[in-house]
Each structure stands twice: as structure tokens, then as C-alpha cells.
């Protein structure tokens, strides 16, 4: 059901809209968590490390899909808020065709240069074959990743966060079952984990796209909407390209970090692979809530109601802190038991690495969550340079301090300490940039 985010109390509107988004991303992350969980519990610690190792490369592909999602979602939100439905439909079809071209290019890159990418991050010899196998299968499923992201971006732009939640809840729980079946019954190993994700994402994507088309057919416009518009494409690109660059550079930064981590051996890799999945669950959830705030902001800017944006910021920070505090406490005090979900009879090094990572990062979740709310507003009003400045500062600081501190007596612990440094400074920047804007 389409929903107008320009009316009603900001706090109530955001909770109704963003809570299903929060649930959706929890289920979305279950795809990756399920892969690592099944690999670690039913195949072995090296399989967990191999899946985690490939995951850092797949994040580059996801960055492009995410950027396309944001670009489409913000522009469609603006047209929907302004009730320019013809242009809204043109934005949807333009985003679809543009994403298809980007997806094809990335697939060629992954197929042709997968070995080089894995070698570039110093993948240990004992993990290389499984890492490559997982990566190859993932690359063939990229169209599903892209078009599912476009579909969810459209749903969010129309104020509908419930439909993608239903799709994800069904597909991600199915993914866990198929993962276990392929690995324990069919004995497919790491390939079974990858093919399970491929199949379940495919079904979810097809259903989501079909529902989007049906929803759009129900919105009447005068005349026939253009299938592709370079003018609309340019507007989408203004939002999408910085988002893609931001996510891509973050992924490249993570790959650099992964290459440093790989130097500490399979035990540290396995512990990091398990704990970073738990961390990404939280950070991606906050990012998705920030995306919801972008949609809220864009609709209100389109409807020429800028004062509601300030109300949205206050409500958004309150919301992410209410949701983030229990997760921070859970990870800090209960991280050990969560790691056992991924690690079957873990080595002391792997378990200790995971616990150390979570206890260093989790106290700063409330800091970075405030940044992501401010970032959501900056994206929604089109201030992409400021958004990128804060994000790149975070990335550069994290990578630089990780490289420096890992060479000290801290070792791998120094890498984990780099996260809070980057988060804190970048959060101050994002909030300052937000407060510089006028919403009167």
C-alpha cells in the first residue's frame, strides 16, 4: 500500500514506515549470516573463513546495487510527494534500464577478474578454492541482487515498507532451510551455501519486481510515460553515483582491511568473519533506517514541507537509539554466545578475536547511528558532497589507523580500534553539515 509521508506527526510516521524496513534488513542480513552460520557449523572453520573472505569482495557489487536503490528511491520519492506520477514512472523505468547496464558490467568484471581480486587481498592458499567457488556463484546471481534492490527502493519511495518485509521474511527463512539441506543432505559444501542464496534471492527478486509493476499500473497518469529520460537519468545519477562511490570506497577500504587481517592467519580470519557479520547486521540496519529517513525527507521536500525535516531528524535519532541500545548491550555482554552460532568447536584464537571485535565496536553504535540519520537527511535533500565528505573521512581514518595500529603491539586489536575513531569524527561532521542547512 502506498503511503504519503508528508502528513501526520513525524515520529509516528517514521516508526510506522521505518520499523518494517528495520525488520526487512534483519531478514536481508540473514542471507549472509545464514551462509556463514551453515559454513562454520556444518563444514568447518576454514569454510567460514572462505565465505567471509569472499564476502568483502561481494560488498563492492552490493555497493553498486545499493547506490542504484538510493538514486531511484530518492527521485521517485520526490515525484511521488509532488504528485508528478508520469515523471515518477519514467524514473522507475530509467532506473531499471540503467541498473541493467551496470549489473552486466559488474558481472563481466567478476567473471574475468575473480582470481585477481582474491589474490589481491592475500587470500590464504587453503581458502582460495572455496572463496573463488562462492564468489563465482554469487556473481551469476547479481541480476537478482540489483533488481531486488531497485524494487525495494520503489516500494520505499511510495511509502510502502511492509511489502518488501514480507518478501524478505519468507525468502531469508527459506534460505536457511535450503542452506542446511544443500550442505548436510546433498553434501555440496561451500557451493551449496552459495547456490541456496542464489535460488532464494532469485525467487524474492522476481516476485518483488512483479508486484512493483502491478502497483505502478494502478497509478493513473495523463498520456504515456517515457520509458527512458536522460534528464531523469541525470537526476538519478546525481544521487546514485555519490552513493555508489561512497559504498564502493567503503568496500575497497574493507578489502584493504581484509588483506591486513588475512596476514594474521585463518584463526583471526574466522573470528573476524563471524563477528563482522554480527556488526554488519547492526550497521546495515541503521543504514536502512537512514534510507527510510531519506525517503521521508525527499517526499517532504517534494511536497514543499521542509520544516518536517527537522522534526524527522529528532524523531530519527530517538528511533535508532531505542533500537540500537539493546543490540549494543547484547553484543558487548553476550557476543561470545552469538559467536558460537557460527563457530563449531572454535579455536581459542578465533573465539577471542570475535569477542574482542564486538566489545570494542558495540559501545559506539549509538554514535554511528546518529551519523546515519544525518546522512539520510543530507541524501534526501540532495547534499551529496557533504554526505560524501563525512563518509570518506570515516573510511580514510579507519583504514589509516588500522594499517598503523596493526603494526604495533596491539596487533589485530589495533585494527578493531580504528572503527570507533573513524565513526566518532565522521559523526561530528555529518551532524554539523545537517545543522548548517536551513529548514524554515
Distance between the termini: 31 Å
- Percent of residues in β-strands: under 5%
Integer average pLDDT: 85
- Radius of gyration from the alpha-carbon trace, in angstroms: 21 Å
**How much helical structure, as a percent, in the residues?**
over 70%
Structural class: mainly alpha
Can you count the beta strands?
0
The SSE string, one letter per element, is: HHHHHHHHHHHHHH
Treating each run of at least 4 consecutive H or I residues as one helix, how many helices? Answer: 14
The dominant shape is globular
Sheet of most strands:
none
**Poorly predicted sequence stretches spanning 5 or more consecutive residues:** none
Distinctive features:
single chain; 440 residues; mainly alpha; 84% helix
Short description:
With 440 residues, the chain is mostly helical.
Task: Please tell me about this protein's structure.
The chain is mostly helical and 440 residues long. 84% of the residues lie in helices and 0% in strands. The protein contains 14 helices and no strands. Helix 9 packs antiparallel against helix 10. The radius of gyration is 21 Å and the shape is globular. The two termini are 31 Å apart.
